[in-house]
Design brief:
- With 188 residues, the chain is α/β, with parallel strands linked by helices.
- It contains 4 helices and 10 strands.
- A 3-stranded mixed β-sheet has the order 1-2-3, covered by helices on one side. A 3-stranded mixed β-sheet has the order 8-7-10, with no helix packed on it. A two-stranded antiparallel sheet has the order 4-5.
- Strand 2, helix 2 (52-62) and strand 3 (68-69) form a beta-alpha-beta unit.
- Helix 1 (6-15) packs antiparallel against helix 2.
- The longest helix is centred in the middle third of the chain and has 16 residues, at 113-128.
- The protein is elongated, with a radius of gyration of 21 Å.
- The N and C termini lie far apart (53 Å).
- The model has no long low-confidence stretch (mean pLDDT 94).
Length: 188
């Protein structure tokens, strides 16, 4: 089914670009800069994955005439007469998340159980936490509990090393939570 609304058409075009994992488009059709900092009469595409030139071409091919494509990344696309047009879009700002936990293990806990828990957490982040989505503390137990043979004595999370918090981590509209192996500390 072909999208007919310009915003939907652009969204569809960007979703079709090779390597793109997520697209969010914020439109500001008012005459003033909005609360997200998007200028009047413009739109802000936030894109995860894909190549810059492919993204800019998809936006150029689908954007309305005279409407600004805004963002922290700009690629010049030449029109049919060879004149350059700046096409803006945004990559989400990564927010590094730190997790610390202490476990009591039993005989069912695998020899590589700590690595399995880390892999489950990273997979959970990649599959479930996209642009602008908060890290919900209670949901972290789901991937952790996919590994048998343990109980969680303590679990803390934060945007800084050596976390002590158990509150959800708020992620801004143009940010994405990022978790890596080295930022997960598990003791038994």
């Amino acid at each position: 089914e072909r999208a007919t609304n310009t915003l939907d058409a652009m969204y569809s075009a960007l979703q079709g670009v090779e390597g793109i994992e997520q697209v969010i488009i914020y439109e500001n059709d008012t005459n003033v800069t909005d609360g997200n900092g998007v200028p009047a009469k413009s739109f802000l595409p936030i894109v995860v994955g894909g190549l810059s030139l492919d993204i800019a071409n998809a936006i150029w091919d689908n954007k309305p005439i005279g409407i600004l494509s805004f963002g922290n990344t700009t690629v010049n696309i030449d029109d049919i007469e060879g004149l350059p047009h700046p096409i803006g879009y945004q990559r989400p700002e990564p927010v590094v998340i730190y997790i610390t936990m202490n476990l009591t293990t039993d005989s069912l806990f695998p020899g590589n159980g700590i690595d399995q828990i880390k892999a489950e957490l990273i997979s959970y982040f990649e599959s479930n936490i996209g642009v602008g989505q908060d890290v919900v503390y209670s949901r972290l137990f789901t991937p952790i509990n996919k590994v048998a043979g343990h109980q969680v004595n303590s679990l803390t999370i934060a945007k800084t090393p050596s976390p002590v918090g158990t509150s959800n981590i708020i992620i801004d509209f143009d940010e994405i939570a990022s978790l890596s192996n080295v930022n997960i500390i598990i003791t038994t």
